[in-house]
Amino acid sequence: MREEVYRRKRSRIGPKHFLLGMIMASLPAAAQQGTLTACSNPYPRTAPYVLQKKAEQYAKKVVGKDGKSDPTEIRGGPTGDLVFWAIADAVAPDQVKRASERFKKIDLLLLQTQTEAETKSTDKQTGAGAKAQGSTSAVEKPDFPKLLSLAIENGTIQQESNGSTLTLSSSPYAFVAARQGDTAEVYRDNHDLTNIGASATFNITNADVPLANATRRQLAEWSVKYRFFDRSSRSQEFQNKWNQTVLPILVKAAQSSADQLAILNDIHTGKGLAAAYDGLFGYVRDYLGIHQGTSADLLVAGLKEEILCRLGADIHDATEVVEAALSPGDVASPGNSGALKVTLDKNTRQKIQMSIVTSLDLDTQVEQAHSAAEDILKAMQQKPLLTFVYTNVRGTTTPSYSVTKFLLEKNTSANRKLVFNAGASFYGNPDRTKNEQTVRDYAAALSWEAQLGRSPLVLNDVDQGQVTLSFAGRYQRLLENRHQAGKKADLAVVQVKFEIPVFSGVSFPISVSYATASELLKEDHVHANFGFSFDTDKLYQLLAFKKKQDALQ
Amino acid sequence: MKQLGRSLYHVKVGETVTVTIVAFGIGNTAVFAVSPGRANQVSDHPRLYQFDVSVEPGQAHFGVVKCDFASDTAPDAHFQVLVSGLDDGENQVTFQGPHISKEDPAEAPISFQNPLAGGL
User: Fold this and answer.
1) Is the ipTM of this complex over 0.90?
2) Could you tell me if A436 and A519 lie in one domain?
3) Residue A186 C-alpha, separation from nearest chain B C-alpha, in angstroms
4) Which residues pair with B107 in a beta bridge?
5) What is the nearest CA distance from A264 to chain B, expressed in angstroms?
6) Which of A301, A346, B26, B58 has the most CB atoms around it within 10 Å of its CB?
7) Is there a contact between A247 and B31 if contact means CB atoms under 8 Å apart?
C-alpha cells in the first residue's frame, strides 16, 4: 500500500480506505517490510543508528515513489556519506555511538512535535459556510490554510464533502503555479493571487458519487475570498526572519558536513582514494536486477540490509589506521582477494573524530534555530487575520443574491480565539412585489472558540486532537420582512457547538441553535445539527508517525 | 562536466560549477556548501552558488545541500537542485541534481569528482 493513499485530503475517503489504514498502522514494522538480503555477511554487530537511518533513506531514494527504481541515486554524495560513517564507526565508534543517540533523539522529537501540532490544529473551515444546509458552523473562519498546495496537488481543484454538501475549492494562484511551477519565486511574484480563494458548494443528492452533484442545478452557492495577510512560512515576513535566525547556522552546518565528507580525499582504498569509491552502485544495481517485481516496501527493507552488509564487508571490516602519515600520492596495496583495504593515518582519524563532534554541536544549534523560527511562525499565526468574502447564493425557493462579508479572526490566547463576521447582501433583480429591494440584509456574527484539551476518546498518545467548545451569536436585519405579516425583519441566532475527536482523524461535531425567527417563519425555534467530520491530514500524520516510530525503536 | 547520477558529477580543474536550489511549495530555506574550497552565493532568489574546481585527479569536491522545512509546509513541498558546468565541447550544460522532500534526509550530499586519467 503506497502512502499516497493517505495523502488524499478529506475527499472520497471511504470506509475501506480508513479501515485499511488502521490495519496497516497496527501491523509490526517487520511484517510490513520483510527482508530480502543478498549479501551474506551482516554488518558487524548492530549497525549504528546513523548508518541504519542513512541506508534506509538512500534505499527509499533508489526505490523511488513512482515504481521506477534508479540505482544511480546511490552514486556520489550518498555513497560518500555512507562510506564516511562506516569508516568512522570502525575508527571512532564512541563518537559515532554518541552521534547516533543524538540523531535518534532529534528525529523522535521532531516527529512527535510535528504530529502533535497537526492533530491539535482546529483552524480549518471544513465543509460549507455558515448558512449552507448541513453546516454546523454559525460563523465562517477566515483562513484557507492548505488550499493552495492541495489544489495544485489534486489538479488545481480541491473537493471536500460533509455529507449533505460538496464544496469544490481552488485559487487563481493554483493555475499559475500549475503552469509555471509552485516555486518560491512564482509565489513571491504572484503574491496577490496567493491570497485569493474561490469555492462552489453543491447540495448532495447522490452521496455515492459526490462529484456527480457538481451541476449547475445543484449549485447552492459560490464564493471568492481575499485574504489580507499571509501568515504562512512562505510569506516574505517569515523568509526575512528565517534569514536572520536560521540561515547563518544552517550555512555553517552545511559547511561542516561538506568538510566532513572531504576527509574521504585523505583515505586510501588500494584502488584509489575513498572519495572515488563507487562500489555500492554496482551492488544496488545488481540487487534491483535480481529482485524485479518485488514490492516497494520489501525492496527498501532489502536494499537497506544489502547496503549495510556491503558497507560492513567492503569498508568497515577493511579499515585500518596506519602509523605512517599518508599523502594523496600514496597507494595502499589491495588485499589478496582484490578486496578494498581502507587505510588512513592517525591524523585523519583525529579529523574524523573532531568532525563528528563539530557536526553534532552544529546540528544541535540548527535544531535550536529551527525551534526559534517555529516560535516566530507561531507568533505570526497569532496575529489577526482579515478576509473579504463575496458569495453568490443561488436559492431554490428565493431569488439569487450576493453577500459581501468581512471575516476577522483574532487569537486571544494560545487556546482561545474570536471570530467576527460582518456584511451585507444584495439582490441583483429585486422583486418589488415581494417587498424586495436592492439591499437584502445586514448581518454580523461573533464567535468565541476554546480548545478544552485533548480528547479522552482518542487512544493514540501522540494524537493531540482537541475537544472544542464554541459559542456564537448572529444578528441579521432582513429588510424585505419589514411590515410583512407573519415575518420578522430582525433575526437573531445563538449557537453552542461542541466537537470531540472520537478516533484519530474523525471527530463528532454537534451544534444546538436557538433562533428568534427565520427568514420565512416568525416563530422562534431550536435547531440541532450533528455528524462526523473526517480529516485525512491528521490520519496521515499519525500513520506516518507510527511507521517511523516503529523504525526508530 | 558529466553527470553519472543525480549526486555524482565528473568535473575538470578550473571549471566553474553552478548549483541552483529551486524551492517548490516552500520558501528559500535551503543552502549549499562545498569542500575543499568554498562556494560563493551569487543569488538569493533562487539560491545560486558557484565554485571553481581545484582538486587533483582522484579527489573530489564534496557539496552538501542542507534544508529546513517549517512545520506548516505542505507534504509535497521540495527542493530541486540544478547543477551546471561545461561539457566536453565547452558548452554550458545543466543537469537535474537531487530532489529533496520533507520526508527525505535534511541534507543531500553531492560529489564533484576530478577523475583519474582513464576514468575511475
Assistant:
1) yes
2) yes
3) 9
4) B66
5) 8
6) B26
7) yes
